[in-house]
């Protein structure tokens, strides 16, 4: 709800649903300041330096001040930085002077639409709906009165007598709506349609913020006879230390023929490459006994 700050052209709206939010508008621009409960309390204490009371009392009196602007004892509103900042000082008498000082920052066009334009359009819609309903009701009442008179009824009290309602004369007298929105836009839902269009054009959805993907580790596998101690290229991300696994699993079938004097440097069908800062190739072979035919 917008409340006028005494005799000024400024209106203030205060909400403490989620945060302690203060908005001020002159119906040209809007300024806003949001506080957590802790920050709101700190602002009140700073504004009333030397005043001692419980924290909960500070907050209660601050809310009372911002919701009872008609009872202000003093007030001060000052624009600075070419209108980008608005400084307000509000003082109320509670048996002693209680002050609230605050700096507000100028809001965006989207904020002005949310806080000022859209609520005003909703008010116009509500008044328009109320007017349409009252006009229909008056026309029905006049028909009922005419029917009552036709059946021989009379209105005894003269001060209750009224002239019949003239709907065309009423419409011609109050033309501000038609001059603003056009005579062709008399539909009760027209204002709601305007609000929906403005919401699509002004309140554009912000792109969703996705968490950054975890860094990937790229391992460039070298040839099978990679020399021990050769480094492995990893990008990006910090170094990852992994203990080497010295066990190599081998399939029992088919049997692998291994020469008794095979060197480690020769090519082998089983090897393990581990991702670490330093690469160490480990090959474990089981001893294989050469086949010797038995003598008969």
Characterization of the model:
With 296 residues, the chain is of the alpha+beta class. The chain folds into three domains: 3-107, DNA double-strand break repair and VJ recombination XRCC4, N-terminal (Dna Repair Protein Xrcc4, Chain: A, domain 1, Beta Complex), CATH 2.170.210; 111-202, no CATH class; 215-250 and 270-283, no CATH class. Helices cover 31% and strands 16% of the residues. It has six helices and seven strands; from the N terminus they run ββββααβββαααα. It has a seven-stranded antiparallel β-sheet with strand order 1-2-3-4-7-6-5. α1 crosses α2 (55-67) and α3 (109-150) packs antiparallel against α6 (190-202). The longest helix has 42 residues, at 109-150. It is elongated and about 80 Å long. Mean pLDDT is 76; it is low at 206-228, 231-252 and 257-288. It is found in: Nucleus. The chain crosses the membrane at residues 83-100. Pfam families: XLF. Belongs to the XRCC4-XLF family. XLF subfamily. Residues 2-105 form the XLF-like N-terminal domain.
How is the biggest beta sheet arranged?
A: 7 strands, antiparallel
Strand order, main sheet: write it out: 1-2-3-4-7-6-5
Q: Considering DSSP H and I runs of 4 or more, what fraction of the residues is helical?
A: 25-40%
Q: What do we call the CATH homologous superfamily of the largest domain?
A: DNA double-strand break repair and VJ recombination XRCC4, N-terminal
Taking the alpha carbons of the first and last residues, their distance comes to 112 Å
CATH topology of the largest domain: Dna Repair Protein Xrcc4, Chain: A, domain 1
Family: Belongs to the XRCC4-XLF family. XLF subfamily.
InterPro entries: NHEJ_factor, XLF-like_N, XRCC4-like_N_sf
Protein name: Non-homologous end-joining factor 1
Main location: nucleus
């Amino acid at each position: 709800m917008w409340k006028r700050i005494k005799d000024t052209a400024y209106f203030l709206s205060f909400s403490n649903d989620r945060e302690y939010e203060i908005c001020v508008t002159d119906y040209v621009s809007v300024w806003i300041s949001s506080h957590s409960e802790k920050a709101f309390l700190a602002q009140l204490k700073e504004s009333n330096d030397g005043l001692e009371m419980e924290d909960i009392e500070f907050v209660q009196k601050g809310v009372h001040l911002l919701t009872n602007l008609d009872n202000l004892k003093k007030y001060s509103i000052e624009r600075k930085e070419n209108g980008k900042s608005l400084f307000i000082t509000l003082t109320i008498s509670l048996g002693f002077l209680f002050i609230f000082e605050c700096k507000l920052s100028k809001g965006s066009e989207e904020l002005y639409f949310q806080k000022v334009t859209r609520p005003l359009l909703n008010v116009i819609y509500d008044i328009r709906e109320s007017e349409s309903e009252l006009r229909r009701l008056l026309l029905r009442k006049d028909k009922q009165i005419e029917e009552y008179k036709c059946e021989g009824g009379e209105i005894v009290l003269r001060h209750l007598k009224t002239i019949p309602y003239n709907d065309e004369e009423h419409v011609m007298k109050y033309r501000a709506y038609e001059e603003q929105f056009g005579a062709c836009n008399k539909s009760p839902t027209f204002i709601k349609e305007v609000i929906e269009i403005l919401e699509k054009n002004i309140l554009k959805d912000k792109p969703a913020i996705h968490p950054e993907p975890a860094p990937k580790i790229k391992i460039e596998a070298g040839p099978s006879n990679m020399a021990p101690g050769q480094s492995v290229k990893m990008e990006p991300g910090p170094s990852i230390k992994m203990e080497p696994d010295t066990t190599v699993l081998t399939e029992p079938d088919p049997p692998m023929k291994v020469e008794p004097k095979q060197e480690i440097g020769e090519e082998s069908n089983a090897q393990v490459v581990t991702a670490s800062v330093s690469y160490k190739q480990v090959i474990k072979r089981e001893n294989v006994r050469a086949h010797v035919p038995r003598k008969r």
